[in-house]
Amino acid sequence: MKILLTLEKTANIFKLMGDKNRLTILCLLREKELCVCEIVDFLQTSQSNISQHMRKLKDGGLVKESKRGQWVHYSLTEEFEYFNELIDTLPADIKKDLDQLKPKCTC
Question: What pTM does this model have?
């Protein structure tokens, strides 16, 4: 299914991606679905801070969530596919850092 983005929607997505933490979260989610606690551990910030970022990304249509017990897991939506080439140009080696992540939670 082809998703058409308006200029306004695209501008809003770029605003969302303009925040370093949200951009990092999107890069992480390109690699695999993650529990909120894994994102907290990776970014070394509070759960409430991550929840605010995730709400904005979800409202922007870039991520979706699924509940598993008490934990919320996040993944990218199909709409994000339009921005994969842009993310490919970023210098960060998220995959290596993500592989070394040992979350403290039991999600």
Answer: 0.79
DSSP codes joined into one string, 9-68: HHHHHHHHHTSHHHHHHHHHHHH--EEHHHHHHHHTS-HHHHHHHHHHHHHTTSEEEEEE
Q: Which two tokens stand for residue 84?
A: 């994969």
8 Å CB contact between 36 and 48? no
CA distance linking residue 53 with residue 16, whole number of Å: 9
What is the chain's length?
Answer: 107
Tokens of 97: 């850092």
Q: What is the pLDDT of residues 41-99, one digit of tens each?
A: 889 999 999 999 999 999 998 999 999 888 889 999 987 777 777 777 766 666 666 66
Q: Which residues contact 7 (CB under 8 A, 6 or more apart)?
A: none
* Residues 23, 90: Cα–Cα separation, whole Å: 10
